[in-house]
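Researcher: Good morning. I'm working through a list of sequences from a screen, and I'd like to move beyond sequence-only analysis. For each chain I'm collecting a predicted structure so we can compare shapes side by side. This is the next one on the list. No need for commentary yet; just the structure.
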Amino acid sequence: MLISPPFLPLAAPNESDEEYLNRAMNSTEGAFPLGQNMIWHGGIHLTAPREGNTHLPVRAIADGTVAYVRQPTATNTDTSHPLNYRNGWTDNGCLILKHETDIGEGAHAKVVFYSIYMHLSAIKSVNIAIDMPIYRKDELGTAGRIYGAPHKIHFEVICSQEQLGHFLGRSTGRLTTTRNGRTDSCWGDIHFYIPPEILFYAARPTNPTSATNESAIVHRHIDAYFVSMNYGKGQCTLTTLDEVGTRLGERQETQDYEYNLYTTASTLYPRSPSAGYELLRFGRTLGPDLLHPHDAAHWRQVAYPASGAHPAGVGWVNLKSPTVTVYSDADFPHWQGWKLIDDDTDGDGRCQSEQVMELLGISEIPVTPQQRTAYSAMINTPENQKKLKRLICKFPSEWERANFFNRYNWLSEGNEPIISAQAQEKLKLHYEALAFWENMDLKDVNSEHWHFPPKEFIRVFRKCGWLSLVEVGGTFPKHMFYTASGNPRTSINTSGQTYTTNRRSAENRVSSHIEDLNKAIRKYLGADRKRISIFLAQVLLETAQWRNIGGSKRLMHEWGFGRYSVLNPATEFYSVFYGRGIMQLTWAKNYKAYGEYRGFRNHVGAYTERISNIPPRLTNVSMHYSAHPDDGGIAFVWAPRFDPDIVAESKYNACDSGGFYWVSKVFSGGMNINRVSDRLYSANNIGLINRLVNGGGNGYYERQAYTAYMLRKLTDSIAETQTIIISPTGKATIHADMQPAE
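Model: Good morning. Structure tokens for this chain:
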């Protein structure tokens, strides 16, 4: 899922995503899920950020289609007009988008949701229509007025009962702690439930895979607790929490732990490094590789709190003990504040959920003016806003005309009515002028539906790096190649599928590998959009733009199958160990390392030969160079190791091998190409990555242009220039073409 906030200010240097979202989604009133008098409120009111002399436009949060549009009523000064209510004019321009995307593997991880943009004073497109495609970051319109206050919108995210199960992996209750979380969708932080019988030890066992620890016990926790594991920018942090999410301690892993994860996994789990890598990264194995031994432990140092005279400290805990269970942000854990609220069946508009009341420490809804004042103040305290901010609530839409009586009739009832009958009639007219539900044609969502906390929805799904086929197809630029000489280098605009592509063609090309490509991204990159952009740009070139022409130009195989070519003299030495997979793994040394990492079994029988009418190049006695002889490569007998053909023919291997190469690559700056991706973007850094991936200058200018295009596409950039000028040191300037494949 690719998602961004409805306002996109320029990012500040070194700004965290948390800080960016707080600026982009500034909300000081109109909170979720409770408004004045504890009435259900399905969204939040946002103020358009100001940059320069203007306020930012409203933008689409994700790719989608138009589900409903209502052009705004022209502003007027008629005090009797229903939209002139309370302190001034309220704009009724409204746009609703339907979004369909993926948050993981398989049908249950396909999700559908709607985003609602209310109180627009203008809608950008005059020709906007139902089912029109809208892309993330597209300008939708202008934030209008809410009761006279300018530059405001009401923003809402909703889904159906069925879709809630797709989003959360469950549609009722708390997350169970007796079994591991979902595997079809796994992203973001990793969370461990640690029952009280799990002990803290002074040291890790000498054999790190052993579950038996003979060192001193340094801590026994009385209650169950949780550990959250966060990876990012090369580092890893483990945070200890109690059941209500109170932080009990935190420990930073050793410096560059994420960057060095390949080495760590190979050291701790030498018989199964790939499975060990996943254990360290996800707390369990998600791929096909098995741990050896199968009950190998996962020892990590975890912080524990002070207890009486016992000071706070850290101890070694086996996070793979039989009673420990593992989850990710995709499970929406309750100890992270996520709760499902569906116990209010009254329908009168006021929150009468016992769960919410218990959370706030109240026993009844406010009735008297004094109670209403006190409750409003209480709800708005930072402590209670924190309790409410991750509630996912089911209640009727506030935009249904037929629901006015149920929602608001209580205002004029009782011994102390809040408003008069005349005032209620005026409210009814105002309500009807804003309502839209009956005008929509949503067959998959009822008027009573699930409301996500909008800001938290965007925040958490920005941790999801799984991309839908449509989203990956959108990373293909229109023009694929650049001129071979001259300065500047410019795109070749020749027609035909070799030089030019469109969205449908792009999606068709990558469709066979989309799930396994996502698995490689999840395992080796995480959700960082900059990393993914740089990685996919290299993949686009290495896979020959994902073209599968057949014959000797088969997808995931180096074209020609390593046959000797005078244009590429190295083929004489790498031969059958030609480039395969999304990163074109080449040379016997790299195949050997990958086979050891994955634990591939030895091959039985004849090896695959892709070139017709020649003697087999790979036999039980044939010698093959580990690397180019000029680089110190030596010849050795490959057999009986695995058949290198499986790196290309298995979709999983083809993609995983690219991720393996990416994180295991050693260079002067250390290990792991993510180190370079995480640096400040520059043409020279991309040039370095080009050399680390390819070793030479093949596709240098295309790789630079692809990277610039994908960074614009996958990040929050709203730049619109058709050409970006890239000026690497010592190379020709590139005029990168920013036209999308349409």
